[in-house]
Amino acid sequence: MGSCAISEITCLHPSTSVNFNRQYSYPLHKSPRMNPITSATFIRNLHYGVRRKVSDFLDPQEMWKEVLVSIETPTGEPRYSQQHLRRFEAVVLQGKSPTMELLNDWGTSNSTVGELVDILMSHRLLAAATILLPEATNARLPAVSQTAVCHEGVPNSDDVTRPIGRTEAQTEKQTPPDTSSEPQEDEEPRDTAGFLRLSFDELKRITGNFDERPVNQGGSRLGEGGFGTVYYGHIQDKPVAVKKLHITEDISPDELSVQFHQEIDILMTLKHENLVDMVGFSREGHHPCLLYVYMSNGSLLDRLACLDNSTPLSWHRRCLIALGTARGLDYLHRNNHVHRDVKSANILLDESFVPKISDFGLTRASATRSSSTEMTERIVGTTAYMAKEALRGEITPKSDIYSFGVVLLEILSGQPPVDENREPKFLMEMKDEIDEDEMTLEEFVDQKMSNWDLLLVERTYSLASDCLNDKKNKRPLTKEVLSELEDVVKSISLEEPGAK
Questions:
Q1: Which of 5, 139, 219, 310 keeps 20 to 30 A from 397, CA to CA?
Q2: Which of 56, 341, 400, 446 is catalytic?
Q3: Range of 261's domain?
Q4: From CA 215, how far away is CA 192, in angstroms rounded?
Q5: Is residue 350 located within the same domain as residue 418?
Q6: CA 444 distance to own-chain centroid
Q7: Number of domains present in the structure of the chain
């Protein structure tokens, strides 16, 4: 299959996601030197890598328990008892995957992939099911409704795929659907697992047939990322953002389907003020689409650059954004998820500048606990934010911490993570100049930022430096990052009551 040399990286834009050479990446529903998986394939014959991928989705939030209680004997009796459940729970303490142990045990019988997929689909564990039978899984999803619902909220205009979020109150109370066209009596409910099912024709209508012209030129295009293009639209006079996923030379149809279901699964399960929340989706046509609320203040990347002549962010506002982002990241890690693409372009700001982490296309679930490390054969991410271990294919929460360290440098300096016309090109390398006294911290700080305090800037820079330690085990935990930023924000509020 050729050599394993890493292909050349071209940094066209600081928010461009770069995929490395994929010689060792196989379609997710096949394994090298193995027959394709079918519904009749015995679970015991599944390749280890396939079972590992399924485990990555079922171990977090203990979703494997949903599968366990649904497994029956040929006579219709539950195959596993509470005693079995406790035995599988115990393997976590040994650093093992309970899902792997369950599949190994169930696989000793003539259980098949079809039986497993049936159970996964019954619990709407779509991403895990798609890994096994992507085509069959997609075919079994219900027909898509022709009408849609939207919610108010806030994406941005940088060129990276960016979901948009709802508040918890908006999630609980949704806007009534458009009833301009009468639904058929046998029509599927519009709200599936909390998300609205949309027709592709409806999405074409609200985006001007996915008008490729930029929004500022009268079109609908907001930006583009590694997994799709984002378009602006209106439903019931409310602004929304539509991410249309597309196949590229680096992303096969099966991989794209997995990314689609993965984002739905993650945003269905994980709810937090500092994570975006999906509104709906469409499975029609060749382009699966995801719908989010339009975010009025765009991305942190754009606001730090004062794009469209926006007002520079104050020191206090920047610290609040850093704190909110750390809270979202801490929530992800406590729920055993590694984002893998933390960057300022993926930090969206609502109308009150509350930060929301977006774009979960690369997110991976950790197999057992948040301190664990996984390996991947496909190296993905944004090079200007990637730790050395991430470049080797390791998936660990400490890589997210490293990326967040780069974000903190952006917040302090107002400079982009990579600039071809700057020396050094990468922002993370400017830390070396400061540490070696070639540049002062005062010179590094964004001169457009108001009311900053040198002592608190030094604390924040020190935290960024700790996050950027080359040795991952010496980087702080997310909760430690959170604690330090909370202290910084409290100190600013004490010095400047009512600071914004």
A1: 5
A2: 341
A3: 168-293
A4: 31
A5: yes
A6: 30
A7: 3
